[in-house]
UniProtKB/TrEMBL annotation, chain A:
GO biological process: translation
Annotated source species: Persicitalea jodogahamensis
Function: Forms part of the ribosomal stalk which helps the ribosome interact with GTP-bound translation factors.
Domain Large ribosomal subunit protein uL11 N-terminal: 9-66
Designated name of the protein: Large ribosomal subunit protein uL11
SMART domains named among the record's database cross-references: RL11
Domain Large ribosomal subunit protein uL11 C-terminal: 71-139
Source organism, top-level taxon: Bacteria
Post-translational modification, as annotated: One or more lysine residues are methylated.
Gene symbol of the encoding locus: rplK
Subunit structure: Part of the ribosomal stalk of the 50S ribosomal subunit. Interacts with L10 and the large rRNA to form the base of the stalk. L10 forms an elongated spine to which L12 dimers bind in a sequential fashion forming a multimeric L10(L12)X complex. Part of the ribosomal stalk of the 50S ribosomal subunit. Interacts with L10 and the large rRNA to form the base of the stalk. L10 forms an elongated spine to which 2 L12 dimers bind in a sequential fashion forming a pentameric L10(L12)2(L12)2 complex.
Key words, A-Z: Methylation, Ribonucleoprotein, Ribosomal protein, RNA-binding, rRNA-binding
PANTHER family in the cross-refs: 60S RIBOSOMAL PROTEIN L12, LARGE RIBOSOMAL SUBUNIT PROTEIN UL11M
UniProt family annotation: Belongs to the universal ribosomal protein uL11 family.
Automatic annotation (TrEMBL), chain B:
Cellular location(s): Cytoplasm
InterPro entries with a match to the protein in the record: Ribosomal_L11_MeTrfase_PrmA, Ribosomal_PrmA_MeTrfase, SAM-dependent_MTases_sf
Native organism taxonomy: Bacteria, Pseudomonadati, Bacteroidota, Cytophagia, Cytophagales
CDD domains named among the record's database cross-references: AdoMet_MTases (cd02440)
The gene coding this protein: prmA
Enzyme class: transferase
UniProt record similarity statement: Belongs to the methyltransferase superfamily. PrmA family.
SUPFAM superfamilies (alphabetical): S-adenosyl-L-methionine-dependent methyltransferases
Molecular functions per Gene Ontology: protein methyltransferase activity
CC annotations in GO: cytoplasm; ribosome
Residues bound to S-adenosyl-L-methionine: 126, 147, 169, 213
Protein name stated in the entry: Ribosomal protein L11 methyltransferase
UniProt keyword terms in alphabetical order: Cytoplasm, Methyltransferase, Ribonucleoprotein, Ribosomal protein, S-adenosyl-L-methionine, Transferase
E.C. numbers: 2.1.1.-
């Protein structure tokens, strides 16, 4: 028989760095889950993404067991990494803080496809480009679909 | 260590961007809320001045309101710890809490009060290492426990005859907890526990056995150091990584002068033993 779900906890945690401090500690501890078990598993599964913010959705069950799914990093994190910047622009329309290529936007869209609410890489790229605009990150060259329409 | 909880109210479009910036500033984890974002950082790393500077830059495009509070260190795992089930390793070892009745059928009973530290035997890696310890020579040896957590592996080493114990962990609460568990298990004599890393172990100190249940990246970095601290004939037990990562760790150990002895796995978690 399937286990009865008690609920869900959604957090954003740096890869390889989960520890029992807040918010993980109080969020899981209050449900009676073994926090240390979660930290060991999360850190074990994210050794190749050390320090990168990763959304994680934890499903906990009435019997105090749990499992979890690690999602792809937020687009803003991937854009900052691609553009090699540490800050977004305070005037994104006027002051640009960095740039990425359309190829990088494609790679980010492809990475994020499982979690994006869209069906094609092209529409994923448009979402990523929107986040880049809000950050003051320019995208070099012409959008691939602009070329295709010629 | 206390933590700061920062509550931010801002439009969802910018919450993700601000999260990326805060992560660069040392904020460790985040929770998206209906009104924005909560962010968490150790109190010692928190600077209100830096935060104000960052948030001020957002005001023209995305007005941000914020407040913060100190969350005092406490044992968040207390509820699970208050009724955890005992763990058996083979028919020789039982790990239990103070509130469990002793069971004389087991040769070694370990009493562990974890207090938010890792190592109760419930996790596959702890179980694998303890199970392996039962077949390794401990009598009269000096044993090092790297990343000791509750101190459970060092305590079993003592019960199996280890003469000297040295244990360390980077986490303050794990160090306190290991000391407490050493006391509960009569393992305080010829034992030392400190907060730190392998770099704090004197260069010329040698051990007959080293136990390291940590993670892939730390092991890949530190296995050569463990090899250097082993006496000829000494053993190294490593765990805390998945089976898929074992070949890299084995290669690193072999290039550090260690001989592979055997591997065991449980639910894809791995444990490997080497000898010098």
């Amino acid at each position: 028989m399937a286990k009865e779900i008690g609920g869900y906890v959604k957090l954003q945690v740096k890869g390889g760095q989960a520890n029992p401090a807040p918010p993980i500690g109080p969020a899981l501890g209050s449900k009676g889950l073994n926090i240390m078990e979660f930290c060991k598993q999360f850190n074990g599964r994210t050794q190749d993404k050390m320090g990168m913010v990763l959304p994680v959705v934890i499903t906990f069950y009435k019997d105090k067991s749990f499992d979890f799914v690690i999602k792809t990093p937020p687009a803003a994190i991937l854009l900052m990494e691609a553009a090699k910047i540490k800050k977004a622009s305070d005037q994104p329309n006027r002051v640009k803080v960095g740039s990425v290529t359309w190829e990088q936007v494609r790679q980010i869209a492809e990475t994020k496809m499982p979690d994006l609410n869209c069906f094609t890489v092209e529409s994923g790229m448009k979402q990523i480009a929107g986040t880049a605009r809000s950050m003051g990150v320019t995208i070099k060259g012409k959008a691939p679909w602009a070329t295709e329409k010629k | 260590m206390n933590h700061i909880e920062l509550n931010l109210t801002l439009s969802p479009e910018y919450a993700e961007i601000l999260m990326a910036e805060l992560a660069e500033m040392g904020y460790e984890s985040f929770v998206e809320t209906d009104t924005g974002l909560d962010a968490y950082i150790p109190e010692s790393d928190f600077s209100e001045e830096k935060l104000q500077e960052t948030l001020a830059r957002y005001q023209p495009v995305a007005p941000v309101r914020f407040s913060w509070q100190v969350l005092e260190k406490k044992n968040w795992n207390a509820e699970w710890e208050s009724n955890y089930a005992p763990i058996e390793v083979g028919d020789a070892v039982r790990v239990r809490a103070l509130f469990h009745e002793p069971d004389a059928r087991f040769r070694h009973e370990l009493v562990i009060t974890p207090k938010m530290s890792f190592g109760t035997g419930h996790h596959e890696t702890t179980w694998l290492v303890m199970n392996e310890q039962l077949s390794l020579p401990h009598a009269g040896r000096a044993v090092l426990d790297v990343g000791c957590g509750t101190g459970i592996l060092a305590i079993l080493a003592r019960k199996l005859g280890a003469a000297d114990l040295l244990a360390f962990d980077i986490e303050e609460w794990a160090v306190e907890n290991t000391r407490e568990n050493f006391s509960l298990n009569e393992a305080t004599e010829q034992s030392e526990v400190f907060q730190g890393t392998i770099d704090d172990v004197p260069f010329d100190q040698r051990f007959g056995g080293i136990l390291a249940n940590i993670n892939r990246n730390i092991l890949l970095n530190e296995v050569p150091r463990y090899a250097q601290h082993l006496l000829p004939g000494g053993w190294l037990v490593v765990s805390g990584f998945y089976e898929i990562d074992a070949p890299d760790i084995i290669a690193k150990a072999e290039s550090s002068g260690l001989s592979y002895k055997r591997m065991n796995t449980r639910n894809q978690w791995a444990m490997v033993v080497f000898e010098k």
